[in-house]
């Protein structure tokens, strides 16, 4: 077995102690100098929105695009523009903020009804969200770092709400499912046989979604919204944007 190595600083300290004990005069003890490692500083992403909004970038709303003034998605307090464009080659969903930033996401939904988009923020502290739908399913996107980012499940698959196409859901809404007084993003599934609606909270950890608290209600006024995309008093039909139909 090899002998343990003695660190130089420890050796100096032992010599100094022996010298002091021997009474060998007034020679001052050596002083060990310890240099702390330099701190590592991680810079924050420069693309993140500030109180002034996202940095102006992009070309704005394209000519010929279908657009609507919608809620503040980047957190600067100003209303933003939500738009859908089709240049014949590519279909694009876009957001142009009040500060002049534009960010986009490709549309790859294939439903024959065309694409619609709806911006929402279920509770004041929630991130800005966009639902992109073809009337069969709705993809969930998040405004993060001045970009439109696809929300996924834990396995990395795009998070989609069923809108009656696969039998797993019929709508999307914003309801308080946790009892904290704040609306939660929820998937809705109306059962025509029982007249009940199952409501499932959708939790977000960054851009990863998961099913949370569930309940079941026999709706009154909610019956109209169980087969639609809504959030509070805002609806896809009244407050969303629809792709132009040729």
From TrEMBL:
Assigned keywords, A-Z: Signal
InterPro entries recorded: Integrin_alpha_N
Recorded superkingdom: Bacteria
Signal sequence, start to end: 1-24
Protein name in the entry: Lipoprotein
